[in-house]
Amino acid sequence: MYIRNYLAPCLLVLLLAFPCPAAAFEAAGWKQQGPEIHAEHFLNLLVEWRVEDAFISLLGSERADTVIELKQDLEGEYGKSGKPLGYERILKQRVGSSLIRLRYLLLFPKMPKVFDLYYYNPDGQGWELRTFTYGRDIKSAFKE
């Protein structure tokens, strides 16, 4: 009984003193967690119809002209095909340990859009988006 009364407060103090693992995971940021976190955040925003926010999260706010152009292009697709239903990752390809290509399908009701995102991490200090492409050519989803 004495041990239980002593251990319970000690465990409570330890739990309060150390940060929650989820908070540590969140604080590390996507650059340490991996590019999938970044890519899927971008795609989630597209599915939520938050196109401008999606491209700002992908490219950063300093590339405003590019964001506006991409937003207009994708909003045109939304007008033709409707709101996206979701997305799925169809390829994860590594070249060594420092380069990753992720391919996703953004699932519109009539036709998917293919996204390729390329991330680079040469020194182990964190991933950076280097480039991305997207298009309607569904045949490209089958290319390696």
What does this structure look like?
This protein is of the alpha+beta class and 144 residues long. The chain is 47% helix and 25% strand. It is built from six helices and four strands, in the order H-H-H-H-H-H-E-E-E-E. The protein has helices at 2-17, 21-28, 30-33, 35-47, 51-59, 64-81, and strands spanning 86-95, 99-107, 112-120, 128-135. A four-stranded antiparallel beta sheet has the order 1-2-3-4, with helices on one face. A hairpin with a 7-residue loop joins strand 3 (112-120) and strand 4 (128-135). The longest helix has 18 residues, at 64-81. The chain is globular, with a radius of gyration of 20 Å. The termini are far apart. The relative contact order is 0.13.
What's the topology here?
Layout (H helix, E strand, L loop, with lengths): L1 H16 L3 H8 L1 H4 L1 H13 L3 H9 L4 H18 L4 E10 L3 E9 L4 E9 L7 E8 L9
Antiparallel strand pairs: 1-2, 2-3, 3-4
